[in-house]
What does this fold into?
Amino acid sequence: MPSPTPPPLPAQCDENFFISEYAEGSGYNKYLELYNAGTCSIHLDDYAFASTSDSPTIPGVYEFWNVFALGATLEPGGVYIIAHPSADATIVAKADETHKDLSNGNDGYCIVKGTESDYTMIDCVGNWDADPGAGWDVCGTSSATKDHTLVRKSSVTVGNGGNWASSAGTDTDNCEWEILPKNDWTYLGLHNQFVPSPTPVVPSNTPVAPCASGTVKNDWSDAVFGNGISECVSVTPTIVTLPLPANASFASSFGQLVSVKPDEGFQLVVTDHYQLGRFAQFTVCAALIADGRRFQFTQRKAPGPDFILHSAEKVRSCIVVDDNSNEQNPAVIDIAGNIFGGAKGGNTMKTLLIGTPITNLTGFFQRNNFGSAVRATNLVFAVAVSDLAVARPTSPPSVKGDVIIVTTNVLNYFITLTSEDKTARGADTPAEFTRQSTKISLALAKLNADLFGVMEVENTNTGAEDLAAKVNSLNPLRNYTAVGKDEPKIGTDAIRSDFIYDTNTLELLEYKTLDDSNSLISGLVSSQSDGVIFGKNGSAGKSRVPVAATFKRKKSADTFTAIVNHFKSKGSSCGSGDDDTQGAGPCNGKRLVTAKALVLWIESDAFFKSKNNVVIMGDLNSYANEAPVLQLLSSGFSTPIDLNSAYSFQFDGESGTLDYALFKGLAVVDSAIWHVNADEPNLLDYNLNFKKDALLFDSTSPYRFSDHDPVLLGLTFA
It folds into this structure.
């Protein structure tokens, strides 16, 4: 096979045809996005996306000649998406074609023009030279082509011609990519290469030349999207009322100066701030005044066809509020005079909480990569930004009981750093781990529980025990230790669930785990198309292995058994029959059979000497009206929390409960959720990715120690 010829001359259209986005996420969440930055249509019959798998048979030579769908074309300014057929429904819905052998992180893919024996390299992710291990390093991030999404920087206008090393670079300044976390598909289908950096515009009754009297200049046009927006628009704002009527769209208001108002019975509230730190923007939606936020559809209703109506109404109810700048990771987060952040934004930490009402929102309306957006010129919150921190819960809610239990997700608490082991999931550096462990241990010390059920701890016998020791150092009246401290592994996953308990107040009588080798659940295991629930004997499962432990309250005869759980997530597909498209999401069937296995275990295993005084706790990855939660509630478990208005997690602008502490048989139970995480921006967490300002971190506060809120349960024995 001949060596590839040099890249085409710059004058050729196809030189501006390149890979704009690449994703290697959980499960089958993989795709390539291609972008035509040229001026002529590209007929993809002339191209292929050739690849190698792991270690090439012949270094430098492709192994698989993958052709595009017959007749496929890519128009100027357009994108073409190749996705795995079993990827998340959000990805597949945007795909132009599917391909089942996309990269696991270490497969080289190149766009080439020509034939199998005579071709020209256009662009590559990875190379065909050798097996890189888990993945290729990009922008100084180890194995970034594994468990990440890569987005081409807007400054890139041509492919790399096969020179992957120059494209990958060695740091964030000399590489061609932005690195996003796993399963972040924010930009999919919206490669926005040529948006200029805007000049901030403040509406005024004095027109800006060359605009006529009564108009104002809109310096940032929407022309990149082909809307033909005029530069001069009326100085009188157009009223946009949320939610829009059914079948209406925002298109007629793009490019105009707008004033956003809520419809009768609604208020405008902050619903999402995932991009606050990186892009200085957040999402505002119309929410019912009585609710104060938007809730996940299945928090209040069972999955069903109305989910489509709910999703459409959400699109008509929400807009992005932007700071009128293309700068990433700004030193000062300033949105129309509202300053957020820490040392660089003021003398005290300023947050932005989900549910914060907005009383005035005016600005220029356009589309951006995140949807319909207002470049705010006037933004007024019902509570001043400087006072938002005051509105936070300063301490955990008080619950009454003889024994206090807390279930909490600790956001991949790994002693092993990702810089030491590419399979680790937590902190990248010692500095990050110090930040993470400091904040989590402070939060647990404030919770001051007798028993913690923790999820997302490194699956070693040192992870939970390390956390216990750090909490002990902050609370000398407690003597915490981990149930699994003598178990090198619990299940096959990289993370485990475990208990941390106070030996001063509780005595551990015995504990037990459940995996697929248990004959009591063999019928449920064999009913699964993939033959697994929790896994066994080194074979991977889907839901994490539950841990049951029986405790005796010291100085009494009172006993109870708690089971800590972490059900399969919604982040990747489990295949046909397990995925729900009407609100419950991927792997709903797998989570349901997990709940059934728990109930069967409790009812049938002699370990549970009393079928009463049992607590099921943990991250069930299911909202309140989804089948897994309903299965447990129908089996005699309950909670005093009103699930109709409760939440412990926020995703994509909507809140709901994923975390539960359900009980059976106990005489009196009190319960509450500490809203210390879900309402807070990730701007404040331990992670230092994307050049985050280290001074934004507050080691003296527990806020945003995880992405899930902890649930408290107080047990009073008869």
Notes: DSSP finds eleven helices and 35 strands in the chain.
